[in-house]
Amino acid sequence: EQTLRALGERHRLYIGTAVDMAALNDANDPQYRALVGSEFSTVTAENVMKWESLEPTRGTYNWGPADQLIDFARQNRQLVRGHVLVWQNQLPSWLTSGVANGTIGTEELRGLLRNHITNVVTHFKGKIWQWDVVNEAVSDPWDSPPAIHLKGFWAQQLGAGYIADAFRWARAADSKALLFYNDYNIEAFGARDSSDKTQFVYDMVKQLRDNRVPIDGVGSQGHLGTQYGNYDAFAVADALNQFSSLGLATAFTEVDARSQMTAGVQAGDSNEINPRVQASAFNYSVLLQACLSNRHCLSFTVWGFTDKHSWVPTWFTNPPEGLATLYDENYQPKKAYQTVKADL
Ligand code: XIL
């Protein structure tokens, strides 16, 4: 039986997964570690490169878990996607509370962000293939107001210019790593109006390119909900092609396709004739085929590969969702795994 990474190599496509460091180090869960090493040619830290993990106390960096992942990757001949430099979530509380109570002002905050990017990119210099420099900066049509806009802590505190700054600071610290803008809900162009997030991101990265800001790629996360139905293969391929026609690389960076656990869907249903479980496999295939059809699509990374260790059931609780990954909770390959394998 061929592995996904071996099959991906035939297309020069890297196949990746997010890695949960607790699971990787759990001696009672050896299959997790074995499969990360055998099936994947690139890894992403699910949490340990986020700011709250790297600098839990102001001025004290905790590099240990992230360095461990880098070592694991080297031993297994894997490339590392760095995730993430600038994001409004999982910030250390000393930073968010300092801003909230006014002890950290705007100029200091800008300096803190600049130092953070410089410190982190320098620490990992030469070891990171792609950096997610800015993550999830853009609103969704279901946010308020529905017209798409720059959202979140950094835009509110520093204004829109933080995005270009972040890319410049990252490039200055490591001239070789590929620098990505990363977001979800940009798999396809939709309404092509003021509520079209994909269009907004397209316009944003085009402007960065036009302004000679050092951005190399767009990461489409690919967190799919099967309740939205089957994605359109042509529309997904078109979105990648539009991004790459700006001279940018593309990648799927956090793929999973979750199902609502209501209406008779159970854990363990993974290979049953259940329309939502079939839809999960189908949607993996849509994203993978779009990536395979785009010469500039460098990697296809899943956000966890087993339902035993997936963020979906903890995050999407109302209604409960799950069954989002390639393997079930007992490390049995699911229909999604077979479909991905057949496509490669
Ligand atoms: C998620 C992790 O999987 C969870 O363990 C954590 O509690 C929250 O963050 N988009 C991203 C990822 O860019 O960093 C998020 O990861 C999932 C959504």
Give a description of the structure:
The structure is a single chain. With 344 residues, the protein is an alpha/beta fold. The protein contains 14 helices and ten strands. It has an eight-stranded parallel beta barrel, surrounded by five helices. Helix 10 links the parallel strand 5 and strand 6. Helix 7 packs parallel to helix 9, helix 11 packs parallel to helix 12 and helix 12 runs parallel beside helix 14. The longest helix is centred in the N-terminal third of the chain and has 18 residues. The radius of gyration is 19 Å and the shape is globular. The protein starts with a helix and ends with a helix. 45% of the residues are buried. The protein binds (3S,4R)-3-hydroxy-2-oxopiperidin-4-yl beta-D-xylopyranoside. (3S,4R)-3-hydroxy-2-oxopiperidin-4-yl beta-D-xylopyranoside binds next to loops. This is Beta-xylanase. Its EC number is 3.2.1.8.
What are the segments in which pLDDT stays under 50 over at least 5 consecutive residues?
none
Strands side by side in the biggest sheet: 1-2-3-4-5-6-8-9
- Compute the number of strand runs: 10
Order of helices and strands: HEHHEHHEHHEHHEHEEHEHEHEH
Attribute tags:
344 residues; alpha/beta; TIM Barrel; 14 helices; 10 strands; binds (3S,4R)-3-hydroxy-2-oxopiperidin-4-yl beta-D-xylopyranoside; EC 3.2.1.8; carbohydrate metabolism
What's the gist of this structure?
This protein is of the alpha/beta class and 344 residues long.
